[in-house]
């Protein structure tokens, strides 16, 4: 925060451009109770888990609704996307009840996410040195018929890894941070507490490294437009004061580079033919089975890797619009606006409702109607 303010005032063109063109939200501490406990113990007397839980005993990073399991269950029943959405999955009602085992911090963060149309996010942690991206939840292996006993293998010990539809984008975002870090990709010494799990890249899918359900990253991806990652800044959760400057230098370029990735992909505004913005319109990118929605002003942002994409905008009561959008390698989102015309589907649904939502028989031109068909037509009219 100090760096951004000082460099902006000093006229740093990179920081000025970032601050001017980006809405940046910073939360100094998500878990102030845990931070206070760990801070009192310090680096020598503390351990990796100290400060991980709130004063009430909640692990905030496993306290969000498990929407991934709900999505996969709906996929197995072939309900996605016609009856169960692949994006903005609603929070279960039982989770919102007052007596639910949900931390006050978790409720505050969920309300914050619903209030702001975030596009890119990162939660900064310590105790490791890597970047973790969704899914954090491991998909249960599908049930199989009983078979003869056999020696356990990797697949038996580890649930199935399920990649997000935006797996390539998440990998790019993770690499953008890790590769700019001064030491994160130097994994030849292994990880902080064991062997290297990042394949010498400093990045890992959460379910492969530390499977857990109800993470903030999975919730952000499935309930909002936001792509969120966990960034573990270093092995020591509480470096000594003399080491802080070097830790800052290790992460400074990575933080700037990561924030700049928000301007990669496509952006635009969805309006009607009179120029009025359409909120909650759905933006569909061909080949990526995960949609986003427009904000209250009809604007949207979609982080994408370089390439050519077939993009469509859809909204209730409007005809969809489709166009091809090109994403370049340079930083700077491609403008992709949509103008939607009103459709007659709303009136058709009203007629269907008057008919009890039964299919309306199509009259074939030139064929005389039967007495039964004439009676039905008169009743409908």
UniProtKB/TrEMBL annotation:
PROSITE patterns: PEPTIDASE_M14. The keyword Glycoprotein applies. Keywords: Glycoprotein. GO terms for cellular component: extracellular space. InterPro entries: CarboxyPept-like_regulatory (IPR008969), Peptidase_M14 (IPR000834), Peptidase_M14_domain (IPR050753). GO terms for biological process: peptide metabolic process; protein processing. GO terms for molecular function: DNA-binding transcription repressor activity, RNA polymerase II-specific; metallocarboxypeptidase activity; RNA polymerase II transcription regulatory region sequence-specific DNA binding; zinc ion binding. Pfam families: CarboxypepD_reg (PF13620), Peptidase_M14 (PF00246). Residues 1-262 form the Peptidase M14 domain. SMART domains: Zn_pept. The keyword Glycoprotein applies. Residues 138-160 are annotated as: Disordered. Belongs to the peptidase M14 family. This is AEBP1 protein.
